[in-house]
Every structure is written in structure tokens, then in C-alpha cells.
Amino acid sequence: MRRSLRKLSAAQPSRYLESGAPTGITGLLTHASPRATLMYTYASTLDALAQLPESSLYRQSTEAITKHRMSIVSAVEPAGLAEYVERVKKILAANPSNFDNYNGHTHHVEKAGKKFIVIKPKPERDELTEEWDGMMDESSSKAKAEAGGENLLSSAPEDEMDMNTDQKIDIEPEPQLTASQIDEIESKIDAGLIEEVIQVAEGELKLVDVMIKAKVWEDLEEKPTEGQWTYFNRET
């Protein structure tokens, strides 16, 4: 039903879903890169679950469902994914130091045996709600100058220039899934829209961290009395 609402909410049918477009659910917008987000979140969850004892029932059950959903997402590949991976590998090989800094714009990480490039999103400004500080905003003029082909850094004072020898490397996003591919993932996982699946995955990742901090696998400090956890068992 909700997948039908998403399709009805689109004014013009398209092969690809438009990022930020309404999904048919209030407050939930179309995700820009659902496949990459799910793969990274699931890998992070499996990585975190490895810190729990193998005997933990929570770890066993969460690992099972996470691996199952991850396999569904992984099996659906957008067109041009293999070529994209090769291009990224070449960039990594040519600029290894640019991806070693965790606090940088982009960095390389490994989760659950899989390698990822994490790209920090650019901060979004809302000029309607942002209070003016009395200073002139030069961002718009800078953007216009850059669009016109002018190199603003060449005329900047030396103390205002970025002295970091590592240049900022922009990585193109993973190729998009088509609307039919997203629908395929949603049908196989059967847990609502892919944006809802992402919310659940992110919530599970946070829960794993809480469970680790609480050490839920350890014995209770106060031992339960005999029969405390026995409820209405049928006696034969």
C-alpha cells in the first residue's frame, strides 16, 4: 500500500526516484543513496555485534536478520556498479593519504570485511530560519565566480589558503538504483519503503551500542528468586 502511495505521489513517472521527493509518508522523503546507506549500516551493525559473545541470543538473532537483509540489498546492483568500483579503486590507489584521515571530507573504512568510502555530507543552510549576523554573505558571489571559471584561490592571501598538501578528492556517488530495483528490494524485505528499512537499520545499529554498554549478556547483579520467570505454565 505504501509503495503504491509513493508511486502516486510522483507527478511524472520516471525510471529513477527523485531524491528528496515525497514518499507518501509524512516527514519521510526519498533517500538519495539507499543501497550504499543500507550496505554500510548493515556492515557496521555486524561489526558491532562481533563485540558480543557468540552465545548471546540477541547477537544470533540480529546477525541472522541483518545478514539476510544485507544479502537482498547486495544482490540488486545498479547499472555501471562494477565500472564505478574500478574507478574508485584507482582513485584510492593514486591518493591513499587523502582517505586515511577519519576527520577528513572523505575517508576509507572497513566494516565486516567490506570496504567503504565515507563521504561527509555538505552542511545545508536554511536562509529562511538562519539569523543574519550583520555580515555580507560572500558564498553566492563566490559560487558565481567559480561557475564563471575564475580561480579565486590564486588571488587569495597566503595565510588564507589551505596549506594542507593533501588535496580534497571528490568521489562520485554510487550509481542509482532504478525505481523497479528499489521496489524489488522492498518486496523481498517486506518491511515497508526502503526509507523505512533504513530507519530500522539505523535504529538497530544504535541499539547494538546500547546493548554493548549495558553488557546484557552478563548475569544479573541481583539473582532472581526461583520461579520468578515462570508464568502460567500448563502443568501436566
DSSP summary, beta strand count? 4
- Basic shape: extended
Distance between the termini: 46 Å
What are the segments in which pLDDT stays under 50 over at least 5 consecutive residues? Answer: 138-165
The strand line-up of the biggest sheet is 1-2
Round the mean pLDDT to the nearest integer and report it: 75
Residue fraction in strands: 5-15%
Number of helices: 7
The biggest sheet, with number of strands, parallel, antiparallel or mixed sense and barrel status, is: 2 strands, antiparallel
Could you spell the SSE succession in H and E letters? HEEHHHEEHHH
Oligomeric category = single chain
Rg result: 24 Å
| Share of helical residues | 40-55%
Structural class computed from helices and strand pairing? mainly alpha
Describe the structure.
This protein has 236 residues and is mainly α. The strands form two sheets. The chain has a two-stranded antiparallel sheet with strand order 1-2. Residues 138-165 have low confidence and may be disordered. It is built from seven helices and four strands. Helix 2 packs antiparallel against helix 3 and helix 2 runs parallel beside helix 7 (194-214). Among the domains are: 1-79 and 175-219, no CATH class; 81-121, no CATH class. It is a peripheral membrane protein. Pfam families: ETC_C1_NDUFA5. One of its GO terms (biological process) is respiratory electron transport chain. Its main location: mitochondrion.
